Amino acid sequence: MKKKIAAVSMCRNDSFFLERWISYYGKILGYKNLYLFIDGIDQKLPLRADKINCFQISHIKLNRLKADRYRAKRISDFAKELHKRYDVVLATDIDEFLVLDPNTGLKLKEYLSKNFISSSLSALGIDVAQHPTFEKSIDKKKPFLSQRKYAFVSDRYTKPIISLKPLNWGSGFHRVKGKDFTIDPNLFLFHFGLADIQILQNKFKNNELISLGWNNHFKRRYKLYEKIKNQIPVEAEQLFQKAREYFKKNRKLIAWNKPSSLKMPSLIKIPKRFKGLV
């Protein structure tokens, strides 16, 4: 029997990924099972706001760290309510897309309907980025993964975004408070925050974000574009297995329930079987 599955997110000043998030999860889970918080009454509603559960809330101006904590707590509390009606709740950023390995031969909803022992699941983080030399700007009308070939296998995006029981997420959904994580062998979380250089460059010009402490974060992220130009991709399948094992065994010193950064080259070419899935 298929379980009831919901997806929830929150966004502000983001039209690039918003419609893709609704389309992607809506087709998989059903639009009526999507819950989206629009952060600010000054924001435009998405085109399909009436097809999903869309809530426009007042924006609270907070610095980067406090805003992440606020968002995680608000969605954690909301997800607990959803768990009264749903078996599984996905909590993602608006530029994150949960993908099941096509090699399983299953659909994502079917796979998540299996019986799992843990209270949450983490998908292996795949941080997709535009190659500055070989790839053009993304065409929003076409699948993202048909236009991008390169990504970093990332501890930061190996996140416990799948809740199987009520829980409390930490900032950015990077951990579950008081609980360990379980990395699923067949799930991937594709993060597209670096998928178009122009998007990140525009954020450097966003006075609101800069005033709230995002500048250094953007600078760190921007450095990954240089890594793509200077590194040779490693074999993806082998790294997937090694990374899962490494993340399971190695934890951050300041957070025992977060995977540590990889101590090995992490740039890959995305396997062809994922082309067109997002």
Specify the CATH architecture.
Answer: Alpha-Beta Complex
Query: Structural class, from helix and strand content?
Result: alpha/beta
Query: Which CATH first-tier class would you pick?
Result: Alpha Beta
- Radius of gyration using CA atoms only: 18 Å
Low-confidence parts, pLDDT < 50 over ≥5 residues? none
CA(first)-CA(last) distance: 26 Å
One letter per element, helices H and strands E, the order comes to: EHEEHEEHEEEEHHHHEEE
Quote the CATH topology: Spore Coat Polysaccharide Biosynthesis Protein SpsA, Chain A
For the secondary structure, the number of strands is 12
Written overview of the protein:
The chain has 278 residues and is of the alpha/beta class. It has a single domain, classed as Spore Coat Polysaccharide Biosynthesis Protein SpsA, Chain A. Helices cover 28% and strands 24% of the residues. It has 7 helices and 12 strands. The chain has helices spanning 18-29, 64-82, 108-112, 197-204, 207-211, 215-230, 236-249; strands at 5-11, 34-39, 53-57, 88-91, 96-100, 120-129, 150-154, 162-163, 183-194, 251-252, 255-259, 267-269. Strands 1, 2, 3, 4, 5, 6, 7, 8, 9 and 12 form a 10-stranded mixed beta sheet that branches. Strands 10-11 form a two-stranded antiparallel sheet. It starts with a strand and ends in a 9-residue tail after the last strand.
